[in-house]
Design brief:
Layout: H1 2-25, H2 32-59, H3 63-89, H4 96-123
Helix pairs in contact: 3-4
Length: 124
C-alpha cells in the first residue's frame, strides 16, 4: 500500500512539474495557488461533464447503478483514508491487500443486496 501511495505521489509530482514548466515557458508565471486553481478547475469540470453524461445514460437503465457507483467512490475514499490513518498513527499496517479486501467486502454485500432486491421484485 505504501508503495502504491508513493507511486501516485511521484506521478502527481511529475505532472505538477511538467505543467509548471509549460506554463513558465509560455510566460504565464503562475503561483502555485493559481496553478492549482486552473488545473483542478479544468480537471473537475471535465470530470463533471463526463460523469453527468454517463449518469444520465445510466439513469435511463437503473438508479441503483448510479447509487452503486457513488457509494463505490465513497468506499474507495474511505478505505484509503483508513489505510493512510493507520500508517500515520501506527494503529495497523498500511497494506494494499487490506484495501482490496475492504472493497471486496463491499462487492459481496452489494451482491447479496441485489439478489434480495431482485427476489423481491420477482415475487411482486
Amino acid at each position: 500500500m505504501k508503495e502504491v501511495i508513493l507511486l501516485l505521489a511521484e506521478l502527481v509530482n511529475l505532472f505538477h512539474d511538467l505543467i509548471w514548466r509549460v506554463t513558465d515557458s509560455l510566460g504565464w508565471n503562475l503561483t502555485d495557488k493559481e496553478l492549482h486553481f486552473w488545473v483542478i478547475g479544468i480537471l473537475g469540470i471535465g470530470g463533471l461533464l463526463f460523469v453527468d453524461l454517463v449518469f444520465h445514460a445510466i439513469s435511463k437503465w437503473s438508479i441503483t447503478a448510479i447509487s452503486f457507483l457513488f457509494t463505490f467512490a465513497m468506499v474507495l475514499v474511505f478505505v484509503f483514508a483508513v489505510e493512510i490513518q493507520q500508517r500515520i498513527t501506527g494503529a495497523g499496517n498500511m497494506e494494499f491487500a487490506d484495501a482490496a479486501y475492504s472493497v471486496f467486502g463491499f462487492f459481496v454485500f452489494c451482491f447479496f443486496y441485489l439478489i434480495i432486491k431482485g427476489l423481491y421484485k420477482w415475487i411482486r
